[in-house]
Specification:
The complex is a heterodimer of chains A (about 350) and B (about 260). With about 350 residues, chain A is an alpha+beta fold. Chain A has helices at about 35-45, 85-95, 100-115, 130-140, 160-175, 190-195, 215-220, 225-230, 315-320; strands at about 5-10, 15-20, 25-30, 50-55, 60, 70-75, 145-150, 180-185, 200-205, 210-215, 235-240, 245, 250, 260-265, 270-275, 285-295, 300-305, 310-315, 330-335, 340-345. In chain A, helix 3 crosses helix 4 (about 130-140) and helix 4 runs parallel beside helix 5 (about 160-175). In chain B, helix 2 (about 30-40) packs across helix 12, helix 3 (about 40-75) packs antiparallel against helix 11 and helix 4 crosses helix 7. Chain B is built from twelve helices and no strands. The model of chain B has no long low-confidence stretch (mean pLDDT about 90). Classes of the chains: A alpha+beta (about 350), B mainly alpha (about 260).
Chain lengths: ~350, ~260
């Protein structure tokens, strides 16, 4: 199964040509770059000025949405309010001509996969945002799509529900090897936790489309948007139950968390302080590093560093004046534990 | 935020305009002779004819009007807004004019009626004519209510159903119609109420033959000349029916909005 799409839609600022193998593919970009429009074209819900979509060798352009086997899960989930959770999930199989009993069995299976079996008899109005998102995901998978389109599936969730849903999303999209998953997101963590396979890609829509393996796109940003997206400092680590994380022989102090096992450790560039000498004071992460690059960005200065791992710091021009930095200079870097966040990573 | 208190002064005038006549009607009801008047043969015949024809007209409105409402609400096609305006004409047209229009079309010497008579079918001055006249005036109520309900629907629900594999027919019957059911119901109830109260078009197009075309409003008008007490008793029936109908629809819509 693979998905090729070539689409040009001037009104929506979209001009792409992608060839996506089975696996998970993240799509991001600034507002108005045509992310949702791309999904609508793939699903057959909108027509571009010029487009060609081929799924598994099957041209889709002349097929109506219900014959494409391309399922779109939108941000709000769009569960049917007049059906209970089980019948919502059974809707796909029923639409494909399956019997009532067989469809309900399929629904029970997918509800179990997303951990929502206990809610089968509920109406969608009695679900929380996180629960509704899981049911919407189960409903999409139960329709047995060849391509699954996810339009910001985590954007509407509250902070507590997001990590759990991200973990479910990562797990279920890894279970079917022949499935093409296209995930539209704003969050680099979604990209890293879902599109983490060797053939998975990241596409950044915009004036100049950036496309390629996730790491490569993030490490060689060609637009401000991608630079900002990649600007988050992150490190693959093992979470220590109760707090902290370990990356290789590096012991990282973090904010309190409840993650165990593989994780992403993240902190923003402006959480990083730079010093001349070894800083004193409260428990912090303190590393010695070397400046590799300095760039001014809209009134702020971004400093790229090689500490035990690559990171960037954002400081004010005044701070830079007090602490002259040139590529090659050695500095001390500190990050407050409370500014360091831990997110569960997919087990691959 | 509350509106200014003095608005109650003109508003009470409005309430009086509506409620006072109803009170006047109620006050002139002769309670003692109410039951015999209501159960007289002419009254029962007229009431039953009204209920039968109004139900038939409502069914016709649903069968013909619901598809039209769905088409008007969705998509954009040539002549869409013109057609919508045309469907609304019976709403603002004097019913007598509507009746004349029907007569010149379906009457014995009418545009289409001529050919129908030749084929052995005569519509005017028959119960069919009553149903046709009621459908003519009631249709806009159903189309307007349902079109509004469909327009208010989140289109993404139907899009989700489509990408899950639902054909257009399955989307309509399993998603769209269940979601607009309250709008369809209130539209049908309003159409039924309008059909029940229909007078002018019926009299013009169908006449006033007892048991065949003389519906309750026609019977009331007729009785007014000969037996005012009977007319008032029958009017009371229509007032009660109208109140129950409006009450049921209004209670539904305010509950849905809450």
């Amino acid at each position: 199964m693979s998905l090729q799409v070539r689409a040009r839609w001037a009104e929506r600022g979209l001009d792409v040509d992608l060839d996506l193998p089975p696996g998970r593919h993240a799509v991001t970009g600034p507002n108005g770059a045509g992310k949702s429009s791309l999904l609508a074209i793939l699903a057959g819900l909108a027509r571009a000025d010029d487009s060609r979509v081929v799924l598994d060798g099957r041209p889709l352009d002349d097929l109506p949405p219900h014959r494409r086997r391309v399922v779109l899960m939108s941000q709000a989930g769009q569960l049917f309010p007049h059906l209970d959770v089980r019948d919502n999930v059974a809707f796909g199989p029923r639409s494909h001509g399956r019997g009532r009993r067989e469809s309900r069995a399929a629904a029970e299976h997918w509800l179990d996969v997303v951990g929502m079996s206990d809610f089968a008899d509920r109406r969608p109005s009695r679900l929380s945002g996180g629960q509704a998102a899981r049911v919407a995901l189960a409903r999409a998978l139960a329709a047995e799509p060849d391509a699954l389109l996810l339009d910001e599936p985590l954007a509407a969730l509250d902070v507590e529900a997001t990590p759990a849903m991200r973990a479910v999303l990562s797990r279920v999209t890894h279970e079917r090897e022949d499935l093409v998953v296209v995930l539209v997101t704003h969050d680099v963590l979604d990209v890293l936790t879902v599109a983490d396979g060797p053939t998975d890609t990241l596409t950044v829509l915009g004036q100049q489309v950036e496309h390629g393996p996730v790491r490569q796109v993030l490490e060689h940003p060609r637009s401000d948007f991608t630079a900002g997206l990649a600007g988050l400092n992150l490190l693959r680590a093992e979470a220590t139950p109760g707090g902290g994380a370990i990356a290789g022989d590096l012991d990282i102090a973090t904010g309190p968390h409840e993650v165990a096992g593989p994780c992403w450790v993240t902190f923003t560039p402006d959480a990083v302080s730079l010093h001349h000498d070894h800083p004193e004071g409260s428990p912090r992460n303190v590393w010695q590093g070397r400046v590799s690059r300095v760039e001014a960005h809209a009134g702020r200065v971004r400093v790229w560093l090689e500490t035990p791992f690559a990171m960037s710091a954002e400081v004010t021009p005044a701070a830079l004046a007090a602490l002259p930095l040139r590529p090659g200079d050695t500095v001390w870097v500190s990050v407050k534990a409370s500014q360091v966040r831990v997110h569960p990573a997919a087990v691959s | 935020m509350k509106p200014p208190v003095w608005l109650w002064i003109p508003a009470s005038g409005a309430i009086l305009v509506v409620v006072l006549p109803l009170l006047g009607l109620l006050s002139s009801v002769d309670v003692g002779s109410l039951w015999p008047l209501l159960t007289s043969e002419a009254s029962v015949t007229a009431l039953l004819l009204s209920l039968r024809t109004s139900l038939a007209a409502t069914a016709l409105c649903i069968v013909l009007g619901a598809p039209l409402a769905l088409l008007l609400a969705r998509g954009s096609w040539r002549g869409q807004s013109t057609l919508r305006a045309l469907v609304l004409v019976p709403l603002v047209l004097p019913p007598v004019v509507g009746g004349l229009a029907l007569l010149t079309t379906f009457g014995r010497r009418g545009l289409i009626g001529e050919h129908l008579v030749a084929a052995g079918l005569s519509i005017s001055y028959s119960t069919t004519a009553v149903v046709l006249a009621q459908t003519f005036v009631a249709l806009p109520f159903l189309v307007l209510s349902l079109e509004g309900a469909v327009r208010g629907l989140d289109r993404r629900q139907e899009e989700a159903a489509a990408t899950l594999g639902a054909s257009p027919w399955r989307r309509l019957t399993r998603v769209t119609l269940p979601l607009v059911a309250p709008g369809l119901l209130s539209g049908s109830v309003l159409a039924f109420a309008r059909a029940l109260g229909e007078f002018g078009a019926t009299l013009t197009f169908a006449g006033s033959a007892q048991g065949r075309t003389r519906t309750l409003p026609l019977e009331i008008y007729l009785q007014r000349e000969v037996d005012p007490d009977a007319a008032i008793a029958l009017s009371l029936v229509l007032v009660v029916l109208a109140t129950v109908i409006v009450g049921s629809v209004y209670a539904r819509t305010t509950r849905a909005a809450a």
